[in-house]
Design a protein that fits this description.
With 309 residues, the protein is mainly alpha-helical. The protein contains 14 helices and 5 strands. The chain folds into 2 domains: 108 residues, DNA polymerase, domain 1; 174 residues, Orthogonal Bundle (hpI Integrase, Chain A).
């Protein structure tokens, strides 16, 4: 594999035990003092996710090689994020944050020689091919969510599978934008992504969301709907991690059928299922937020979803 080819060239002199790496990260967090709490939290989360991904790729356990913080490794990581549906804006933010961290390692600590972001270009957003899940894959995913039996998981899955919401729309969904009870449900979604719209919820989407809000243990002080234990909202990265962990709960016979399914694939499959139920292209386009600057449903975007039929 390409990553394995990269890592065998490393110089073991640059190994940093996990404890030392945690110290370095703590020092950098102090260095960022002066920025807002949210900004510091976002920067540190990006850096820690990169370090964790590199460590996982190379099975290095309790040690981290600073030479692994290379342009090749960072390029692989950004390509990984791109394949998983992260926007070009987020990829550019990752590059900027890592660049700042690398400059600090070079100038203040003297423990890194080159900035891995030099000469690194950000690829255009990865356009995933249209996906229609097999009936088996659908049944496996529905079964896993039911077996996990947590209100938050059922609500997140429902927003993807039964409403076709984007990851960013779920992560930034405000509690004030929800009008839901045991018999009625409507969302205002997409304000953060510029695709704002009001959508009615079918029962299979409404009930899990309602149960989560009422009984799911969400942070009542947060303005956001889907919260985490540490933050006022579950971030896009957090949703992707949740999705990866959820799929791993499949048994050995089930996992091969869903291992490559991304959360964004649920959105594509939603369009397919609603079209098969008789929705028009205009209805699907509006529901999914495919609207032109003139306020007209973008039928071209929706038609692409249906290429798998």
């Amino acid at each position: 594999m390409e990553s394995a080819r990269i890592w065998v060239l490393l110089d073991v002199v640059d190994v940093v035990p996990t404890q030392k790496m945690q110290q370095i990260l703590a020092e950098y967090e102090v260095f960022l003092t002066g920025l807002s709490h949210r900004t510091i939290d976002a920067y540190m989360r990006i850096i820690k996710q990169l370090v964790s991904w590199i460590s996982d790729q190379n099975h290095i356990g309790d040690e981290f090689y600073l030479t692994q913080l290379s342009r090749t490794a960072l390029g692989d990581y950004i390509a990984h994020l791109n394949r998983n549906g992260y926007s070009s804006t987020h990829l550019a933010r990752v590059k900027s944050v890592v660049s700042g961290f690398a400059c600090w390692l070079i100038e203040s600590k003297g423990i890194l020689r080159d900035n891995p972001t030099n000469g690194l270009s950000i690829p255009p957003s990865f356009k995933q091919p249209p996906v229609k899940l097999s009936q088996n894959a659908r049944e496996i995913l529905l079964s896993i969510v039911e077996r996990e039996d947590t209100y938050r998981s059922q609500a997140i899955f429902a927003l993807g599978y039964w409403t076709g919401c984007r990851v960013g729309e779920i992560a930034w969904l405000r509690i004030s934008d929800i009008n839901v009870n045991s018999k009625f449900g409507r969302l205002n979604v997409g304000y953060k992504t510029g695709k704002e719209r009001s959508i009615d919820l079918i029962e299979t989407a409404r009930l899990p969301l309602y149960e989560y809000i009422i009984r799911g243990g969400r942070n009542q002080n947060s303005p956001y709907t889907i919260t985490s234990q540490r933050h006022e909202r579950l971030t896009e990265a957090g949703i992707h991690r949740w999705w990866s962990n959820l799929k791993k709960q499949a048994d050995a016979s089930e996992y091969p059928l869903i291992c490559d399914v991304t959360f964004h694939d649920l959105r594509h499959d939603f369009a397919v299922r609603m079209y098969e139920k008789g929705w028009t292209l205009q209805q699907i386009a509006y529901y999914l937020g495919h609207i032109t600057k003139d306020g007209i449903p973008s039928l071209t975007s929706v038609a692409r979803y249906l290429e798998s039929l």
